[in-house]
C-alpha cells in the first residue's frame, strides 16, 4: 500500500464525510489522484463500508447489544470459515471475529430486548452441531465507540452546586 493510500485511510478513519476535494487539499494532492486512490481502495476491499458511529443510549428506542463468545469444533474441509459464514447470515449479527483464547468467536449482536438476545443464542447459535459452548455478555454502557468518546465525562455533565 502506498503512502497516499495510507494517508487517505487515516483521514477517512477519522471522518468518512470528507469529500475527495478536501482530502486532496489536506494532502497536497490532486483531486483526481485522491479519487483514483479511494476507488482503488474500495475495489480491493480495503474500504469495506462508510458508516456513522451511532450512540442510542439517550434515545427512546430500546436496543440491546451483546457480545457472545462461541466455542466451536471447526467443520471438516471448511475450518472456522464455514461456521463463521453460517453465523454471519443472521441479521442480528453486527460483527463477527475469530479470536484466540478460550473461545473461538466473538459475536456482537443487536436485538430489541434481553429476551430476543436469549432467543437468538438458544434458537440460532446453540443449534449448530459444531457449537460446544457460549457465554453471553450484555453491553450496559458505551464509553468509547470506534475511537470516539460516547459521552461527555461526568465532570462536564454535572452542574456546579457552589455559589
Strand content: 15-25%
So what's the overall shape?
globular
Helix-and-strand structural type: alpha+beta
Tell me the number of strands. Answer: 6
- Rg of Cα set: 21 Å
- The largest sheet has its strands arranged as 2-3-1-4
| H/E topology pattern | HHHEHEEHEEEH
- Stretches where pLDDT is under 50 for at least 5 consecutive residues are 154-160
Report, as a whole number of angstroms, the end-to-end distance: 58 Å
Rounded mean pLDDT is: 85
Query: Largest sheet at a glance?
Result: 4 strands, antiparallel
State the helical fraction: 25-40%
Number of helices: 6
Write the layout of secondary structure elements.
Blueprint: H1 3-14, H2 20-27, H3 31-43, E1 64-72, H4 79-88, E2 93-98, E3 105-111, H5 114-123, E4 131-138, E5 144-145, E6 148-149, H6 154-157
Antiparallel strand pairs: 1-3, 1-4, 2-3, 5-6
Helix pairs in contact: 2-3
Report on the architecture of this protein.
With 163 residues, the chain is α+β, with helices and mostly antiparallel strands. Helix content is 35%, strand content 21%. It contains 6 helices and 6 strands, in the order αααβαββαβββα. The chain has helices spanning 3-14, 20-27, 31-43, 79-88, 114-123, 154-157; strands spanning 64-72, 93-98, 105-111, 131-138, 144-145, 148-149. The strands form 2 sheets. Strands 2-3-1-4 form a 4-stranded antiparallel sheet. A two-stranded antiparallel sheet has the order 5-6. Strand 2 and strand 3 (105-111) form a beta hairpin. Helix 2 packs across helix 3 (31-43). The longest helix has 13 residues, at 31-43. The chain is globular and about 55 Å long. The N and C termini lie far apart (58 Å).
